[in-house]
Write a structure and sequence with these properties.
- The complex is a heterodimer of chains A (about 950) and B (about 425).
- In chain A, about 50% of the residues lie in helices and about 10% in strands.
- Chain A is of the alpha+beta class and about 950 residues long.
- In chain A, strands 1, 11, 12, 13, 14, 15 and 16 form a seven-stranded antiparallel sheet that branches. In chain A, strands 2-3-4-8-6 form a five-stranded antiparallel sheet, with no helix packed on it. Chain A has a four-stranded antiparallel sheet with strand order 7-5-9-10, with no helix packed on it.
- In chain A, strand 13 (about 895-900) and strand 14 (about 905-910) form a beta hairpin.
- Chain A starts with a helix and ends with a helix.
- Chain B is of the alpha+beta class.
- Classes of the chains: A alpha+beta (about 950), B alpha+beta (about 425).
- Chains A and B meet through helix 2, helix 4, helix 6, helix 8 and helix 10 of A and strand 2, strand 4, helix 2, helix 4 and strand 7 of B.
């Protein structure tokens, strides 16, 4: 009947579909979708539906697609009719139509069209629209599941799409990679840095997939950042053969993290703030598997935050926290209270929280935890109460201080009215007594007293076992219990019967006088029991303990067999070995390997070639190159996608500021370069770029650089008659301030940044790099208040704590008062003080300025006589070129280049930092000689500078 | 990734199925039903259930189980988060996410599911993109559609999906430009028998309703951003700006969205705005028990405590309750043993109380645990942590928007042990 009706309706629908009215067709399709949704079979309508695949009505078309994808597999021949429509749509000028055509085409699981799909995917993967390319990435997986033989071709497409720079594509193509060829890690190398940098802007689902993939990648490519463990143990064999000395050298070699490893950690960190719980979990597992142990703590807060989310999210997060908390209690201990159980939690959430609380228990917090547990024991949810008792048992074995307290608490629970609670307590007490082989006979006596009231068989069996095991401690009670058991033996459960037989045997051996007859009786009962297990046991025990002429050598050892000291059971967490699975995975959640789980490899002992990840920059030397090629400075912008135009409008105001600065500096350097026709183009460009880069770094650098302050600094230089300009050249070399041997692990290096100091107009700005090469963290690194030489020093902010192997860069300012005398001060840690001194090269006491050539000559004419010093030198041939002269001069001293109209005269200008007096340098080339002239009021400085220039210009080399 | 989805109602019937790859027989749900039977409470069904060939990941919302079928390794949170997103979308579209609503709108549901996943991998989950693709049903539109035969599916193709700000569509226009922000804080607390706080923390969210023309760029700053200990953002918030300046800078999505959720640092002492005096006692051997509750305000900064609702799961042995409230109404369900008391507003002059006796099953032993009391309340115009918005500025557009900020404090999981 029903069937008939259904057929009727189908006829009905068919008619509607064949009518000429759009609205009727649509209505029919809606009903059909309703049928599909209910799981009813509507396959026989296929021919009627497929006709409408090319309909103009979008909704109708979409519903037809839904139908087609659902039934194409069953109606392959008819499905082929629709293919040409999609092929046509693939050529549509609208990207969204192309994408949707590819989407449906690739979803039709008909093997005949595999070649067509392959072709379409290949075409779409080079489409101009990133959205179509994204669809192509999805189609790869579909085709692969339809026809795995296409793997090789598909890998080619994946390889191509991995190079894609669009954030839209990244997530989807990595998904395809994971599904089709997760072992082809070599495809990732060249894209690694790009993926890291794009990650923040990829859509959230893609982020999860990419993070999981990068976790696996990093474990194969970088060496372990976990110093103390694993690495050396694994190499122990090798180390064994090495000479002792070599090994020591090896060990003291500090671990330096691969910059790419660091890049990954740095770029994933902001994602901990994502609203998507899966992303937060993915980042957390990445840190767990890849980050140095001391950096792990940053994930704690985020994980705890997830506990506020839905019940299911809590469940997964708690499972992962449980695994983490076994290995690293410290991570979650401050958040212990977040794991307190609420009466409204679901049972599995409660048990997981309990698990974590137990893992977190230590001597310091155990009393709080136990107090909390006491509330839980009284819970109405008895399964949970039982779990709490087990947890108490685990705390008691792990923390010996509280064993007795716990035991007493558990004994009190024995008089609880609830059976499951009592039973669980007995079982746990049994385990505890076993681990505590001391005098707990009173507890055993107490349990014997309660024995009559306990009906749960497991508990009864446990008590009987305890009686037997410690029958010597309770010589009077044990036989009595046995007597009672003899009465009720036949009505007991199997496990209780077995333990009764055990008890009888043990008593027979220790106290045969009192219990001989009882034992005989029980053994007889057992002999005719229904369960063969019990009959077997009885027979075995009888042969073992009752001496007769036939019994062999074994009965001599009966006592030793039955009464042997037994090892105590180990109470441990169910999450103990879960960490064999990557956290956050389905396999971890289930504690068994799921289909398609990809093993996380161990760290390699030696890092594979790092250079594979280097990408040749093919872009022309344009401004953004610096930002990109330097992974250290990640893009300041948040919505950074180089492909999209909207980008421009959206940049935060901070980056706008920096670009105005860059403009400013560009102008300056352009000025300075304008008329110096001798300078090659490339040199000019390089300088501009360098200036720009320096200026851009300014607002980037964290430690202070309030823009306003910086601008006011600039302003003050304007007042000083001539424009201060940014340095032409900044030496990268740093000098040693404190060696790590003298610094007891603390080492410090300094370099001159050649920037105007932000702390004071008369100060020279310095950059200090402090690193800790000891194996303990150094605390409170600062410069002592009482510095010796009376130099005015702006101290850097005390660095609270420097972890082992970590280093930190700070900036400070020193007023050298235009003299090269060393500034002495004390670099202090919490425990130690080290005297250090910085002696500046004379060239560092200058700041570059720009002026016109006319101004230069005018100023120079004022500074003659005493104020002029000059020398003639013979130039080495390679120094003759104007470029090399410029380079030599600016590397020695922080001077600005003045545009010069004469090819053979080079001019440079600067001013001293403290007093601000002008320093004008000119180099006149008269082949093969050169005359260096320095005009300044500060004659001491002039002579020192002159000497340095002489050496610089006469020396060959760079 | 996600192979299929089954929707199961409270009575255990599958009322909707959707497959993104080849069809999986609905018999796979038998394993789920087994787990459902074993669970004592609907919430106790484990979220991840392994079966011989598949894995079932389910979430329970609005008394509907959303059961996703998975075939191979996938981060379980990925699936769970997605399923919740599906529920949120349904709620957004139909106002409620109930079996009836889904059945009534089965075509829209199907269209949505089709757009949200491609081959089991999330494609479009942003609500504003979806709304461009498929228009939410309204009564007016349904009427118009039946008359004119036009459709719910957007004629235009979405632009949001292709832009760098996928959460906002282009060409938004309003005559009244307004931006409202609700700062809502929830107090989670466990109070012990003696009234001392065992644990208390404040979680907050800032929900926004932004109806602004064009592409506005907003910045929101706080008087005391240091209070915020741990935050998570809508993807529109520029993280770098927050890190550097503690300012929320963002191009908002159109309409309602959650801008920020935060946790107030645990160093700050949490003000507990209500206290409970209770006297619940059962005597051994007697079939009567005493039950007395009195509520009172404390540390409310002068604001009224409203919409107070007290609920408690009484022990299984309780047969009935005979109580008299000084205000509001109470109900006791003898089957589930759930007592709930709708108090309303707390008047500090006349504290609300609920007194009386409860009758126990004769012969049943005295319950060993006193019930836990759950309290819900609301305090308007107060963020209990003291968080204050400093200013809201708009850049990028010329008009002057109307701005509004509202504060509210609510009880989250607020439990009193007795």
């Amino acid at each position: 009947m029903l069937n008939h009706c259904f057929l009727c309706r189908n006829e009905d629908l068919k008619e509607m579909l064949e009518s000429s009215k759009e609205s009727l067709k649509l209505e029919a399709m809606k009903r059909i979708v309703g049928l599909i949704a209910k799981g009813k079979n509507a396959s026989e309508l296929f021919p009627a539906v497929v006709k409408n695949v090319a309909s103009k009505n979008i909704e109708l078309k979409k519903l037809v697609y839904v139908y087609l994808v659902r039934y194409a597999e069953e109606q392959q021949d008819l499905a082929l009719l629709s293919i040409s429509t999609f092929q046509r749509a693939l050529k549509d000028p609208n990207q969204l139509i192309r994408a949707s055509a590819l989407r449906v085409l690739s979803s039709i699981r008909v093997p005949i069209i595999v070649p067509i799909m392959m072709l379409s995917i290949k075409e779409a993967s080079t489409d101009l629209s990133p959205y179509v390319r994204k669809t192509a990435a999805h189609a790869i997986q579909k085709l692969y599941s339809l026809d795995p033989d296409q793997k090789e071709h598909l890998i080619e497409v994946i390889e191509k799409l991995l190079k894609d720079k669009s954030t839209l594509v990244a997530g989807s193509v990595v998904m395809a990679f994971e599904e089709v060829c997760p072992d082809r890690i070599d495809l990732i190398h060249k894209n690694y840095r790009k993926l890291c940098n794009l990650l923040v802007d990829v859509e959230e689902w893609g982020q999860v997939v990419i993070i999981h993939m990068l976790t696996r990648y990093a474990r194969t490519q970088f060496v372990s950042p976990w110093r103390e463990d694993a690495v050396f143990d694994e190499n122990s064999e090798k180390a064994f053969y090495d000479s002792e000395e070599e090994r020591r050298v090896d060990q003291s070699k500090p671990y330096i993290m691969d910059p790419d490893h660091r890049l990954l950690l740095r770029n994933t960190k902001p994602l901990l703030q994502s609203r998507n719980t899966a992303v937060v979990m993915a980042v957390s597992q990445l840190y767990w598997h890849l980050a140095p142990k001391h950096e792990l703590s940053i994930i704690t807060k985020s994980l705890v935050r997830l506990l506020r989310s839905h019940r299911e999210v809590q469940y997964i997060v708690l499972q992962n926290i449980a695994t983490m908390s076994i290995q690293r209690k410290g991570m979650f201990e401050p958040f212990m209270k977040s794991f307190y159980v609420r009466s409204t939690d679901a049972t599995h959430i409660k048990t997981l929280k309990l698990e974590i609380l137990t893992n977190l228990a230590n001597e310091a917090n155990i009393s709080t935890i136990l107090r909390e547990f006491q509330t839980y024991v009284k819970s109405q949810d008895k399964a949970f109460a039982a779990a709490t008792i087990q947890a108490i048992g685990r705390c008691a074995t792990n923390i010996s201080e509280v064993t007795d307290t716990c035991l007493n608490g558990l004994v009190l629970l024995l008089s609880n009215r609830d059976e499951t609670v009592v039973a669980e307590s007995v079982v746990v007490i049994k385990k505890l007594l076993q681990t505590q082989p001391s005098q707990h006979s009173d507890i055993i006596k107490h349990m014997a007293k309660l024995f009559d009231n306990i009906t749960v068989s497991m508990a009864r069996a446990s008590i009987l076992w305890l009686m037997g095991e410690y029958c010597e401690h309770v010589p009077k009670i044990a036989p009595d219990v046995l007597r009672k058991m003899a009465k009720t033996f036949t009505s007991e459960e199997d496990i209780v019967k077995l333990q009764t037989v055990n008890l009888a045997a043990k008593l027979y051996l220790t106290n045969s006088k009192q219990t001989k007859l009882l034992t005989q009786y029980i053994l007889n009962l057992g002999k005719y029991d229904q369960s063969y297990d019990i009959r077997d046991r009885t027979r075995f025990i009888r042969q073992l303990i009752v001496p007769n002429e036939k019994s062999g050598a074994l009965s001599k050892y009966a006592r030793r067999i039955l009464m042997a000291p037994k090892p105590a059971p180990v109470l441990q967490s169910a999450f103990k070995d879960r960490d064999r699975f990557q956290l956050g995975t389905l396999s971890h959640s289930l504690n068994s390997q799921a289909n398609g789980y990809l093993e996380l490899s161990d760290w390699p002992a030696v890092a594979p070639d790092q250079s594979v990840r280097i990408v040749e920059v093919v872009e022309p030397a344009g401004a953004p190159v610096f930002g990109k090629s330097k992974p250290g400075k990640s893009d300041e912008k948040f919505y950074s996608d180089s492909e999209e135009e909207e980008e421009e409008e959206e940049e935060g105001s901070s980056s706008e500021d920096s670009s105005t600065l860059a403009c400013l500096s560009e102008e300056n350097s352009d000025d300075s370069n304008k008329s110096s026709s001798s300078q090659s183009d490339s040199e000019k460009k390089k300088k501009t770029l360098k200036n720009k880069k320096l200026q851009q770094q300014k607002p980037d650098s964290k430690d202070s650089h309030d823009l306003a302050l910086f601008l006011s600094q600039l302003h003050s230089f304007f007042l000083n008659q001539f424009l201060a300009s940014s340095p032409v050249f900044v030496p990268e070399t740093s000098r040693e301030l404190l060696h790590r041997m003298t610094g007891k692990g603390l080492s410090a290096q300094y370099r001159f940044t050649r920037q105007p100091c932000i702390y004071g107009n008369s100060m020279v700005s310095l950059q200090l790099t402090l690193s800790n090469s000891s194996d303990q963290a150094l605390e409170n690194i600062h410069i002592s208040e009482k510095s010796s030489t009376g130099r005015d020093i702006h101290r850097f902010n005390a660095s609270e704590r420097l972890e082992p192997q970590a280093s930190v860069t700070v900036s400070m300012g020193v007023d050298f008062n235009d003299s090269t005398q060393a500034a002495n001060f004390q670099l202090c840690t919490k425990e130690d003080e080290f005297s250090v001194s910085i002696q500046p090269a004379v060239g560092e006491l200058l700041l570059p300025i720009t002026m016109s050539e006319a101004d230069f000559t005018k100023e120079q004419s004022k500074l003659v006589g005493m104020n002029e010093s000059s020398a003639t030198i013979t130039m080495t041939p390679e120094n003759v070129s104007s470029q090399s002269v410029n380079r030599k001069v600016v590397s020695v001293a922080n001077l600005g280049v003045i545009p010069s109209s004469q090819e053979n005269i080079h001019r440079f200008a600067g001013k001293t930092v403290s007093s601000g007096c002008l320093v004008l340098v000119s180099v006149a080339l008269k082949d093969p000689d050169a005359v260096i002239t320095i005009n300044t009021e500060n004659t001491v400085m002039a002579s020192m500078l002159l000497r340095q220039f002489k050496t610089a210009l006469t020396n060959s080399g760079p | 990734m996600i192979h299929s989805l089954f929707l199961v109602n409270a009575s255990g019937d599958i009322f909707l199925e959707k497959h993104w790859k080849s069809v999986v027989s609905r018999s796979v749900c038998d394993y789920f039903f087994e787990a459902l039977e074993r669970a004592t409470e609907p919430e106790n069904v484990p979220p991840v259930i392994p079966t011989p060939h598949h894995f079932l990941i389910n979430v329970l919302r609005h008394r509907i189980y959303f059961v996703a079928v998975i075939q191979s390794e996938v981060p379980p949170l990925f699936v769970i988060e997605f399923l919740h997103r599906v529920v949120d979308t349904f709620q957004d579209y139909f106002g409620v996410c109930s079996e009836a609503a889904i059945k009534d709108n089965v075509v829209v549901v199907y269209e949505l599911l089709e757009e949200m996943l491609d081959n089991g991998f999330p494609l479009a989950t942003e609500s504003n993109i979806l709304k461009e693709l498929i228009k939410p049903p309204t009564i007016l539109r349904t009427v118009v559609n039946t008359i004119t035969g036009s459709t719910n599916v957007g004629e235009q193709l979405p632009t949001g999906q292709l832009s760098v700000v996928p959460w906002r569509r282009t060409g938004v226009k309003y005559t009244n430009n307004e931006a409202y922000f609700d700062v809502v804080e929830e107090i989670d607390a466990i109070i012990d028998k003696s009234g001392s706080t065992i644990t208390a923390e404040i979680q907050g969210v800032i929900d926004a309703c932004v109806k602004l023309t064009g592409m506005p760029d907003l910045t929101l700053s706080f008087m005391n951003p240091r209070l915020l200990d741990d935050v998570s953002f809508h993807p529109c918030v520029r993280f770098k700006r927050w890190e550097a300046e503690r300012i929320l800078s963002f191009i908002p999505p159109d309409g309602n969205f959650r801008l920020l959720s935060y946790h107030v640092s645990s160093q700050n002492l949490v003000a507990i705005p209500v206290y409970v005096k209770h006297n619940i006692s059962f005597r051994e051997g007697s079939s009567q028990g005493r039950f007395e509750l009195t509520l009172g305000p404390k540390q409310t900064m002068g604001k009224a405590v409203e919409s107070v609702l007290v609920s408690s799961q009484l022990p299984r042995g309780v047969l009935n309750a005979n109580l008299s409230p000084s205000q509001g109404t109470y109900t006791f369900d003898p089957v589930t043993k759930l007592l709930s008391w709708d108090v309303g507003k707390i008047n500090p002059q006349k504290l609300p109380s609920l007194k009386g006796s409860v009758s126990l099953q004769t012969g049943a032993s005295k319950p060993d645990e006193n019930p836990t009391i759950n309290i819900q309340f609301k305090i308007q115009q107060l963020a209990i942590s003291g968080l204050k918005v400093n200013r809201l500025d708009m850049y990028g557009e010329k008009y002057k928007p109307f701005k509004g900020i509202k504060y509210m404090t609510k009880a989250g999981k607020f439990q009193v042990r007795t």
